[in-house]
Write a structure and sequence with these properties.
alpha/beta, Rossmann fold, 2 domains, six-stranded parallel beta sheet, 12 helices, 19 strands
């Protein structure tokens, strides 16, 4: 048996980091516990804070608990902070996993497959690790870490990486329930942003919120997304009900359902809404405008759906085509209205700075917002994250990746033009940040201050 501590990389750009518990860690914790290991899942924000110097993490070493194996799940914006935390942690071996590791090891850019970009770690693991990380901890307990494990990467003396390719994806229908009880953070309040639903007043801000996946993967092919064109793997309705019941038993009364496209199968979506409603949950989800109809959304509203987020991405037809989004501004407007007419808050997620962006296309986005009037809008700056088509083939999009791409993706300097990775031929970095600032201010003034970028 190994003593294992799991954590996510620190993510200080989130409005409430503790609210965004890593579901991947909860699934991993459940698999480790089932295999007999002593596992703990920690909220890394209780042990770290930011120094005034950009890019510097302060780790409160006196609070860190020694362990055999430290596992840190990283996305690209927090990979640097995750490494800084790992360097300080008193663990016998330190392992990095998560989307960042997977997309680097499985990606085409060999210059980034080096210890220099993974400081603080002894091993890396790619892919979904519910089975392989358990195998790693089993071998650690037996002193057999020289054994081959799918997805495991070791560092050679020269800093290069020796990697066993990822194994097959685990069968999600055979996984144990996420270890909700192992999360040491609070299931925070305030993740819903409504005051009424179906004509009834609710105190949504006082509802304790949990998170869940019902399916993994997205079959659509957006060029900006690392999860594009992945097989949809669904949990059973029995699993979903067991998870909702487990959350209800620890006091959770609201859900964030993180599926990429919760309405992709209408009957299944209705069945899930019934389950959420039967346990008294209010909930929010994410979908696409081509995966909805008025009857479905009225049904969801009657069963506790308070908000639906849509990857609108842009108000320019030219930019939507460049992103391979598969929608149009007109379809996006229609979808937003269907959602609103059902009494559900419609949030538009928008992306500025994709290759091809111009002042004219940004004005088209503002005009779309002005004409459509979603209830809320979240505006984000495009970065070519590992796993996306722009990362894999930058030349297709008329751009180049700089050598220090990772250091420019940290969340810390999100408002500094220098942190943008790409130099676009159509707009300077300074112009992009100016445009984002102006558009964000317009959204706050004209759409919703309370709901902006939440």
């Amino acid at each position: 048996m190994a003593k294992v501590i799991l954590a996510g990389g620190p993510s200080f750009a989130l409005f409430n980091p503790s609210l965004h518990v890593s579901l991947g860690l909860l699934y991993l914790g459940a698999a480790l516990r089932r295999a007999g290991h002593d596992v703990k899942i920690v909220d890394c924000h209780k042990y770290t804070f930011l120094d005034e110097s950009p890019g510097k993490l302060i780790v409160m070493r006196e609070l860190l608990e020694p362990c055999d194996v430290l596992g840190i799940s990283c996305v690209t914006p927090n990979a640097e902070f995750g490494g800084q935390m790992a360097e300080a942690w008193p663990a016998k071996v330190k392992v990095a996993g998560g989307p960042h590791v997977t997309y680097i090891l499985e990606g085409p850019h060999h210059e980034f497959k080096h210890r220099n970009y993974f400081r603080g770690f002894d091993y890396l693991m790619s892919g979904e690790c519910e089975e392989t990380f358990v195998q790693f901890c089993d071998y650690f307990s037996k002193g057999m870490l020289s054994m081959p494990i799918p997805g495991l990467a070791r560092f050679r003396k020269d800093g290069s990486i020796d990697w066993n390719p990822s194994g097959p994806m685990p069968d999600v229908t055979k996984m144990p329930l996420p270890a909700y009880d192992l999360w040491e953070g609070n299931y925070s309040k305030g993740a819903l942003a409504v005051q009424s639903i179906s004509g009834k007043s609710v105190d949504a801000a006082e509802r304790t919120t949990g998170s869940m996946f019902t399916a993994r993967g997205c079959p659509y092919g957006c060029y900006f997304c690392a999860d594009a064109r992945t097989k949809l793997r669904e949990e059973t309705l029995e699993q979903i009900e067991a998870e909702v019941k487990a959350l209800a038993e620890i006091g959770v009364t609201a859900l964030r359902v993180w599926d990429d496209t919760i309405t992709i199968k209408e009957k299944r979506c209705r069945d899930m809404a019934d389950i959420f409603h039967n346990y008294g949950m209010l909930w929010r989800g994410w979908s696409r405008v081509n995966l909805m109809n008025a009857d479905l959304f009225k049904y969801l509203a009657a069963r506790g759906c308070t908000e639906m987020g849509f990857g609108v991405e842009h108000g320019s037809a030219r930019m939507l085509k460049a992103m391979n989004k598969g929608t149009t501004p007109e379809a996006n407007s229609k979808g937003i209205k269907i959602c609103q007419d059902a009494g559900i808050v419609a949030r538009a997620y928008l992306l500025i700075g994709f290759p091809g962006e111009t002042w004219e296309s940004i004005e088209e986005m503002r005009l779309w917002l002005d004409g459509t009037r979603p209830d809320a809008a979240s505006l984000h700056m495009f970065q070519p994250y590992p796993g996306s088509q722009v990362w894999a083939s930058p030349e297709r999009f008329g751009i180049e990746l700089p050598e220090n791409a990772f250091s420019q993706m940290w969340e810390l300097n999100d408002d500094d033009p220098k942190t943008l990775v790409l130099d676009l031929p159509t707009m300077t970095k300074e112009e992009l940040f100016q445009a984002r600032t102006e558009l964000h201010e317009w959204i706050v003034d004209n759409i919703s201050l309370r709901l902006a970028n939440r």
